[in-house]
């Protein structure tokens, strides 16, 4: 039997605590909170043991009792807060030797439990934390209360059902059921269940997951969950640099002042919990030792990760390259198995034109010159091609009746020459025929379509206003006679020219600079806001493929239609409408009769001549604008009275109305002209036919 005084001395030696690991609070040595933390699910039993007897003193609970020490329990909501003595009910919560049992634990049981071992002389204290939580939704565990294990691919692993020692009776074989992801599983042959362990002989990637062990303790169920993560086997090789190349020096030429971004990427095998080590150096200096704010090293970036193997990258940036920044830079990667490096040399880029660059620029310049030349030479053709294939008809001026108004002054007969004949032939025959018959335009020609009245100027102004373009055939005669004077006299016409309401096309048929009042032509050009001048260079310009017609067609309103073939034998149809389109047509016979009556009324002295000498010819054939109508032998013209009160307009040559008699240089031609001028109903000459008008 040991003397009491000896046991007390031994207890005193046992309870001597270094001041480094404890602190005295109110005369008691406080060991703070024990490292072992108790975690339990709601409804499960749990046993909290006083940690003083399991690592802090060299005595057990029985020795403490023999030494006269008592064990007391306190609870607090948080460490360092007010501690309240625990009263045990002996049912759900009970004190058993050096531990507290909860059968089962409730949410209110969470907190800090302190066990105090003391007598009148000595006092020692330690706290244990208890966490009580519910299962996650639709799961058999709480994700914050799991154990964690790692296993290498293709190697063996043993998963233990941890923290169940307090629930197994000594000498008894526990009945443990294993689940994966809270569901029963048909385990493969390489996985064995032994008592409280689950042994996997060859770990596979699909073994990753949560393993739950379950056993019965009285009327309660105890579960413990372990999360298993699978990694690649531990590597025994150093990392591999992916870029830049390890085998050779990479040379990068950059201009001074340009930004720099050098990226180094590498692949790291699994090395446990060690983070990848990758960095840049310039020579033998780390980047942070350069003391240059312009030169920075970015954070390590993980590009991809699988089973612990990682591909990472790090970048070296320079805001603006300077001479001092040129040199060799090295990217280093390393782990416990070794180190590798890749080198990059920054060099200054020399600004020099190589043969390839010079050739490329020359080719581009040559192509540009060719395109500009092509556009300059064939601009009109290109625009017409685009307009014909992709353009749409002009909608501006859709409410106007005519595409163009043709202004021209005829040449006096006493001033005729070869040149003036060509100009008049162009203005009165070729120009209207091509525009109307070939391109389908509708022209208004005063000498043809306008009946002389007392309001001539107003009629001209109205017709110009109803036209989309104004074509002025500028000849010496037009300049001398000041053919544009009507556009100055009429205020409406002048305003149209000045404001650009109508686009003017000025066709110059000859050199006009030598004419006396040429300066007025220049003044007229400056007055017109929208003016285009086109040169007519004589008979060569009459060809349809000439530059003249392409330019004129480009300036005319765009009209999409099939071109019509023309000949000098084709003229306006009798049903064409002019300003008198509402008038009805009459037959050639009625027109001839009306013509006869009109001429006889206008010139009484010609009546007998008409009826006696020319009526026989009219019975045989009637001529007007190259159309001919055969009358049957013995046929007669209907009397004028049959026409009733209907207005009848006849085909009368404008030369006869104006009293003009064309002059001919040859006596024979002169005699024909005189005979024609003195005979009211002789067949019209071709020149007169072109001037005459068909008006119904």
């Amino acid at each position: 039997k040991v003397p009491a005084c000896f046991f007390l001395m031994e207890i005193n030696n046992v309870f001597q605590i270094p001041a480094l690991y404890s602190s005295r609070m109110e005369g008691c040595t406080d060991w703070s909170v024990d490292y072992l933390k108790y975690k339990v699910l709601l409804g499960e039993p749990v046993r909290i043991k006083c940690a003083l007897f399991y690592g802090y003193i060299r005595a057990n609970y029985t020795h403490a009792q023999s030494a006269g020490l008592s064990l007391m329990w306190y609870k607090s909501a948080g460490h360092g807060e007010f501690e309240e003595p625990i009263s045990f009910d002996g049912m759900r919560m009970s004190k058993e030797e050096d531990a507290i049992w909860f059968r089962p634990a409730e949410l209110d049981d969470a907190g800090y439990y302190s066990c105090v071992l003391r007598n009148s002389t000595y006092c020692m204290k330690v706290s244990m934390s208890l966490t009580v939580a519910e299962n996650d939704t639709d799961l058999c565990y709480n994700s914050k209360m799991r154990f964690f294990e790692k296993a290498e691919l293709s190697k063996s692993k043993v998963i233990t059902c941890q923290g169940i020692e307090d629930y197994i009776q000594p000498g008894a074989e526990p009945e443990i059921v294993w689940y994966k992801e809270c569901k029963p599983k048909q385990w493969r042959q390489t996985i064995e269940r032994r008592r409280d362990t689950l042994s996997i002989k060859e770990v596979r990637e699909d073994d990753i997951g949560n393993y739950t062990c379950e056993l019965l303790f009285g009327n309660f169920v105890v579960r413990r969950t372990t999360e298993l993560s699978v990694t690649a086997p531990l590597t025994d090789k150093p990392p591999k640099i992916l870029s830049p190349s390890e085998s050779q020096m990479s040379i990068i030429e950059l201009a001074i002042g340009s930004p720099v971004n050098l990226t180094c990427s590498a692949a790291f095998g699994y090395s446990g919990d060690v983070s990848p080590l990758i960095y840049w150096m310039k020579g033998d200096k780390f980047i942070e030792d350069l003391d240059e704010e312009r030169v920075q090293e970015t954070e390590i970036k993980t590009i991809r990760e699988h089973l612990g193997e990682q591909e990472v990258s790090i970048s070296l940036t320079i805001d603006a390259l300077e001479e001092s920044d040129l040199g060799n830079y090295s990217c280093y990667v390393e782990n416990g198995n070794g180190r590798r490096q890749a080198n990059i040399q920054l060099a200054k880029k020399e600004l020099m034109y190589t043969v390839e660059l010079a050739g490329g620029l020359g080719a581009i310049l040559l192509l540009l010159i060719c395109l500009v030349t092509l556009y300059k030479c064939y601009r009109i053709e290109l625009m017409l091609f685009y307009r014909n294939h992709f353009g749409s008809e002009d909608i501006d001026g859709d409410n106007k009746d005519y595409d163009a108004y043709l202004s021209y002054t005829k040449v006096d007969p006493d001033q005729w020459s070869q040149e003036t004949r060509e100009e008049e032939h162009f203005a009165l025959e070729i120009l209207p025929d091509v525009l109307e018959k070939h391109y389908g335009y509708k022209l208004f020609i005063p000498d043809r379509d306008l009946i002389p009245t007392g309001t001539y100027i107003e009629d001209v102004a109205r017709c110009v206003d109803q036209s989309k373009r104004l074509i002025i055939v500028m000849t010496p005669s037009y300049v001398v006679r000041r053919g544009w004077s009507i556009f100055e006299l009429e205020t409406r016409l002048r305003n149209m020219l000045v404001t650009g309401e109508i686009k003017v096309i000025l066709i110059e048929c000859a050199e006009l600079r030598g004419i006396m009042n040429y300066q007025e032509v220049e003044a007229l050009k400056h007055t017109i806001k929208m003016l285009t001048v086109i040169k007519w260079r004589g008979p060569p310009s009459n060809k349809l493929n000439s530059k003249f017609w392409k330019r004129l067609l480009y300036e005319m309103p765009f009209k999409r239609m099939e071109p019509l073939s023309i000949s000098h034998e084709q003229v306006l149809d009798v049903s064409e409408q002019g300003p008198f389109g509402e008038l009805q047509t009459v037959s050639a016979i009625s027109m001839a009769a009306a013509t006869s009556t009109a001429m006889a009324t206008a010139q009484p002295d010609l009546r007998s001549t008409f009826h006696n000498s020319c009526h026989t010819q009219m019975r045989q054939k009637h001529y007007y604008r190259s159309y001919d109508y055969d009358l049957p032998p013995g046929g007669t013209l209907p009397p004028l009275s049959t026409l009733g009160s209907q207005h009848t307009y006849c085909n009368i040559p404008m030369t006869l109305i104006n009293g003009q008699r064309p002059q001919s240089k040859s006596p024979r031609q002169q005699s024909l002209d005189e005979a024609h001028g003195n005979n009211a109903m002789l067949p019209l000459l071709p020149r007169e036919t072109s001037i005459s008008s068909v008006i119904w």
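The longest strand covers residues 220-231. The longest helix spans residues 355-390.
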